Amino acid sequence: xxxSYALGGFILLAYTLEAITGFGSIVIALSLGALLLPIxxxxxxxxxxxxxxxxxxxxxxxxxxxxRLLLGTILPGMVAGTLLGYLLLPWLDAALLKVGFGALILWxxxxxxxxxxxxxxxxxxxxxxxxxxxxxxxxxxxxxxSGGPLLVYGLAGTExxxxxxxxxxxTVWFTLNSLLTLAFLADGRxxxxxxxxxxxxxxxxxxVWLGERLHRRVSEQHFRIAIYCLLLVTGALLLWPx
Length: 242
Prior knowledge:
Radius of gyration: 17 Å
Number of strands: 0
Largest sheet: none
Oligomer: single chain
């Protein structure tokens, strides 16, 4: 019971933050939730929830989507990588998966805090490197449904403003997580998770309501600092031997 309430709190926090920034709901909820439950049990709950939230945000902000970037660069690499990651998942050890996930979020959070502290601006990368990083983000998404950290890293240096970047990112997650949900339905993991999905769904309404208002009123940088500090702690906890 305590674990269920704690997971609900993690979900509310994570989906509020994604409503603000356009990414991070699953990576935050999964990194915190993995302290309580195995990753393979969390994914069939978190991914359908993400579809509900991102679908709503896409319907509200579709005019801001950068279609050229989405269709020309992001989706081809992300879809291919997601399929590859999903196919690799059954062959990986659960403990190794948890360590790999912890290392990923620890690297990303540490890098972003270092960059923010130095006030460094992201450099524009060559197109081939952006596509390679995008493919890696897709593989991460297929494994953990958490391609956001690598994709944001790959898109660093683009000229998208906060609103356009958020609209483009949530479109990516809506597309890919719809595919993952169909995969969970096919492999039998979705139906047993639906009662939990329904139980946690009302938290999305509160998360989106809060996130939409905070997106307009509060400095995104302050929220990003809080996110990265939280991820540093949870990444370290995931790597801590038990």
